[in-house]
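Researcher: Batch entry, complex prediction.
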Amino acid sequence: QSALTQPASMSGSPGQSITISCTGTSSDVGGFNYVSWYQQHSGKAPKLMIFDVNKRPSGVSDRFSGSKSGNTASLTISGLQAEDEADYHCTSYTSGSTWVFGGGTKLTVL
Amino acid sequence: QVQLQESGPGLMKPSQTLSLTCSVSSGSISSGSYYWTWIRQPAGKGLEWIGRIHTTGRTTYNPSLNSRVTISLDTSKNQFSLSLNSVTAADTAVYYCARGMSAFDLWGQGTMVTVSS
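Model: Structure tokens for the complex:
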């Protein structure tokens, strides 16, 4: 199984919106609605931000939203804040009953 | 609230077998229909799914590691374990245990494992 494709880095200014993409295949992202997104601050464990493509766990800000079109999933962060600076990882369930992650995206808030 | 905590050796030599344990507290590992999962992250790189075990004991592994990995469940101790044999420097990473169903909603803090001669 090949890793999902994410941009290595992105940046935005406070208050702006950014969208991080996560591209897979019909055997993972395109085939299942089990895409999730994780925020990871430096030296910390990942934190679940979006699950089942577009659902937010309790306690996660509604500035975070998810979507999917074909083989590409997206995480949108609106009203960027300094605390959003972190690495973001996507993952998807696969046709092999396994999970595959993307390479991660480093988000910088300018 | 359920919490996860990894424990393991820290430093290993090539060709040895890595053994890690994830202790589950404030909740039973047998309750619910969860998958108990191992994930790792080499320094400066992305996450890699290693494998999982269901509360029924059924396992699934990453095909790239399948021949070297075993995940087991010990309900009496409320913990699950990872065994990875024939380790090399490429297995150096932070290893996380996590709880999953359609996503990984709970994570341990991670434990660093370094493989070096």
